[in-house]
Amino acid sequence: MTARIALASIKSNNGSPVWLEDSRIAAVxxxxxxxxxxxxxxxxMSFRLFDFSPAIEELVSRELxxxxxxxxxxAIVGEPALPNYLxxxxxRFSPNGERSLAVHPTGSIAGxxxxxxxxxVRRRGLIGKSDREEKKYPQAVHHIKVFRNEAGKARxxxxxHGSIKFLRMRAAD
Length: 173
Fold this sequence. Notes:
The protein has one domain. It is 23% helix and 22% strand. It is built from four helices and nine strands. The strands form two sheets. Strands 3, 4, 5, 6, 7 and 8 form a six-stranded mixed beta sheet that branches. Strands 1-9-2 form a three-stranded antiparallel beta sheet. A hairpin with a 4-residue loop joins strand 7 (142-148) and strand 8. The longest helix is centred in the middle third of the chain and has 12 residues, at 66-77.
């Protein structure tokens, strides 16, 4: 499964490819990683910036199934901001069915002093334990959350709650 999402990220032509590794499989020898050009996210990925719309907040607050919310979110933000390869990965690897996915309310990056407010990124990631709402979504392994800045830009973040790490070349938007 990890090889499929890596290959799909390359074929999508949406910027830097994503490589996955877990406790059994290493994407590359650790000593060969140039940490100045590679982001090693412990289970979190983000995608292309887009213009935030109030329709996004309205969508994620509606009483819909998580899969339907995810598809509708992609329809609003576009494929580069929420790539098809991620949706396919979530569909294929959902051990708890519909309960494997949680689409969370949007959040502002304004309160994160150590974040790049313009680029909407943070070295330590943005989806923390409180964002995962574990009491509300106890079986979720896939978490989707949109973070926005004061300039009206936003970015979709995906966190896998497990042992997978994502490696990706740093790229400018």
